[in-house]
């Protein structure tokens, strides 16, 4: 037996443990849609979940499985299902586990598209309450008889509020609720939601895990903490075998197979390769973000900086306690005397783009783009001003980044 290996070592050698043919370093990209069997009983057993195997790639593919195993290792979870995007992972998880008479408590500081799909669920008849999750009491007050789930993000985008995650985890455990934490902003390198008793972890693999802005993907990881035995929404047909697997069986069948948000094997391969350097990239990007946040925080033309790594951030201590570093998402407001668009256009290195978690530093004016559809009222509720700029800090040399901001603010 080898000793427990570190985060990056485990990732680098994960594929080889499955002994890919010819001694390949990577799990090959399996493009076959269907899988054939010589004995029909073997095919039947795969269909009935009696043996592990593949039948049709919409609900499982060997290249995708290799990535799922890596995410499970990174999140210290029980098992993972990958999807075509982070949004597919979120919608499939909720569709598979929630019924129409159920209630969900969600953070009011959510990724814009998550908020938007939740609005669609409300129109389809689900009941949501949105609360400020920086205080567990807001979550406790919102819980009703029919509450089944609490859903929140680690570091909110764009205003970087940090949820009171450990206390909310205790509350969910006490009440027997599903506790879904979207870990995209922190990534499993900075934080594992299982440590605050999350029952499920969402990751947009598109962002830090893939890391190079060249593939879309998403995942849900079951941490093994939920008691499926007493959960009323599991269909009898999925109550087979190990109780711990019931929830994921239902997500794979109802959420992935039926809804069809399948990750392509080519994308799974790109994300797998990208994930090998997650730790290195996060270290560098977080250090860059800290440096830049400190520079912007003292600049007279910058009104306010939102970054959990600066002392004046309202949840600075909580973030320091929970996360290995303070992330690479950094937002700020320019003084009203500064023309926000002209300033952005003066940046030469920083790319004006909507993505996050790329190797390159990206900037976007928030109210006019990613949160434009929400309208001014909901934006105000989420703490988003019209002068806010969001940065996703990359891994460039810090001197170059600082120089770009200095010349643009001149
Ligand atoms: C980007 C993002 C998502 C959605 O992921 P996609 O892969 O773009 O669908 C979900 N949650 C958060 C916090 C995100 O930043």
TrEMBL record:
GO biological process: cysteine biosynthetic process from serine; L-homocysteine biosynthetic process; transsulfuration
Cofactors, names only: pyridoxal 5'-phosphate
InterPro entries on file: Cys/Met-Metab_PyrdxlP-dep_enz, OAc-hSer/O-AcSer_sulfhydrylase, PyrdxlP-dep_Trfase, PyrdxlP-dep_Trfase_major, PyrdxlP-dep_Trfase_small
Pfam families listed in its UniProt record: Cys_Met_Meta_PP
Top-rank lineage group of the source organism: Bacteria
GO cellular component, one term: cytoplasm
Keywords: Lyase, Pyridoxal phosphate, Transferase
N6-(pyridoxal phosphate)lysine PTM positions: 207
Entry's Gene Ontology molecular function annotations: cysteine synthase activity; lyase activity; O-acetylhomoserine aminocarboxypropyltransferase activity; pyridoxal phosphate binding
Family: Belongs to the trans-sulfuration enzymes family.
Name of the featured protein: O-acetylhomoserine (Thiol)-lyase
């Amino acid at each position: 037996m080898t000793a427990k290996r570190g985060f990056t070592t485990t990732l680098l050698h994960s594929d080889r443990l499955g002994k890919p043919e010819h001694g390949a370093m990577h799990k090959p990209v399996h493009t076959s849609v269907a899988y054939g069997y010589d004995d029909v009983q073997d095919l039947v057993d795969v269909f009935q979940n009696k043996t592990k195997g593949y039948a049709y790639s919409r609900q499982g593919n060997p290249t995708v499985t290799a990535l799922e195993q890596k995410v499970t290792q990174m999140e210290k979870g029980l098992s993972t299902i990958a999807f075509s995007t982070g949004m597919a992972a979120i919608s499939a998880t909720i569709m598979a586990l929630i019924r129409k008479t159920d209630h969900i408590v969600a953070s009011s500081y959510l990724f814009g598209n998550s908020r938007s799909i939740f609005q669609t669920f409300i129109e389809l008849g689900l009941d949501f309450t949105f609360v400020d999750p920086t205080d567990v009491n807001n979550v406790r007050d919102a819980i009703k008889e029919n509450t089944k789930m609490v859903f929140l993000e680690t570091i909110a985008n764009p205003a970087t509020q940090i949820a009171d995650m450990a206390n909310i985890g205790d509350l969910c455990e006490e009440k027997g609720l599903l506790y879904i934490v979207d870990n995209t902003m922190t990534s499993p390198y900075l934080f594992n939601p299982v440590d605050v008793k999350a029952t499920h972890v969402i990751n947009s693999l598109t962002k830090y895990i893939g890391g190079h802005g060249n593939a879309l993907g998403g995942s849900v990881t079951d941490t093994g903490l939920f008691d499926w035995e007493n959960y009323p929404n599991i269909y009898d047909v999925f109550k087979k075998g190990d109780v711990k697997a019931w929830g994921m069986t239902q997500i794979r069948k109802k959420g992935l197979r039926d809804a069809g948000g399948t990750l392509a094997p080519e994308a799974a391969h790109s994300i797998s390769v990208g994930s090998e350097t997650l730790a290195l990239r996060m270290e560098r990007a977080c250090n860059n973000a800290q440096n830049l946040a400190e520079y912007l925080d003292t600049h007279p033309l910058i009104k306010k900086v939102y970054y959990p790594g600066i002392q004046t951030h309202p949840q600075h201590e909580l973030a320091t306690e929970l996360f290995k570093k303070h992330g690479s998402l950094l937002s700020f407001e320019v003084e009203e005397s500064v023309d926000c668009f002209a300033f952005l256009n003066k940046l030469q290195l920083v790319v004006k783009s909507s993505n996050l978690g790329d190797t390159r530093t990206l900037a976007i004016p928030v109210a006019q783009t990613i949160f434009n559809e929400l309208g001014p009222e909901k934006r105000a509720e989420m703490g988003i001003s019209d002068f806010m700029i969001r940065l996703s800090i990359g891994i460039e040399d810090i001197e170059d980044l600082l120089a770009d901001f200095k010349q643009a603010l001149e």
